[in-house]
Amino acid sequence: MAEDPDAFAVEPSPSGRFLCGGCAPHDACRLGVEIADARDDAVRFEVVCPPFWHGGPGVAHGGWIAAVFDDALNVVALRIEPRLVTKSLTVSYLRPVPVGRPVEVSARIDRHAGRQWEVSAEMTLADTALATARAELRTRRPLHFAHHQARLTRPSPSGNGPRTES
Ligand SMILES: CCCCCCCCCCCC(=O)SCCNC(=O)CCNC(=O)[C@H](O)C(C)(C)COP(=O)(O)OP(=O)(O)OC[C@H]1O[C@@H](n2cnc3c(N)ncnc32)[C@H](O)[C@@H]1OP(=O)(O)O
Prior knowledge:
- This protein is of the alpha+beta class.
- About 15% of the residues lie in helices and about 35% in strands.
- The chain has a six-stranded antiparallel β-sheet with strand order 1-2-6-7-8-5, covered by helices on one side. A two-stranded antiparallel sheet has the order 3-4.
- The chain is globular, with a radius of gyration of 18 Å.
- Bound molecules: dodecyl-COA.
- Its EC number is 3.1.2.2.
- GO terms for molecular function: hydrolase activity.
């Protein structure tokens, strides 16, 4: 029988780390994110940009910064709810982020009601804000991944042919 995709949940790895589906088999975060300190509704991370994520000379790629925020903003809620997806993510890039040097990310839950979560975070170096982010998260509905897979396998009504206006 095929594996149930909706059984997927981000839970602590054998070494106690929260890891995405891509990093779990490695038992290490390949973005360079480590939890430094956790309270009920807030988590602090130590983050080092790996050299292969540089965008400009010695400076992190903005996509890496967004991915780090996606992880950090989810981890703060995953400690309560292991079945989440990101609905929206907004990043403000304030200063260049250095490659290969530890920076701090702090994330917190601002609001939580039912399936809806609002979370925010900032990335700092020596108390200077480098970037900030806000996200809306959703607790997944029970058949979230099953519906996604069913849509991918369903034949497209219009195929790839030319569009006809009616
Ligand atoms: C230290 C390192 C740590 C590392 C720790 C690891 C952390 C990893 C965290 C990664 C988190 C991610 O990036 S998750 C990946 C990025 N995010 C996603 O893939 C989410 C994609 N978006 C969605 O699935 C949807 O928009 C939702 C679930 C966000 C919508 O939520 P909602 O606003 O509450 O609305 P909802 O009522 O559920 O659905 C709205 C409409 O979308 C449809 N819909 C909802 N779900 C689906 C679905 N699965 N497949 C098809 N359609 C769907 C509904 O039928 C409905 O259609 P109608 O009635 O309007 O027609």
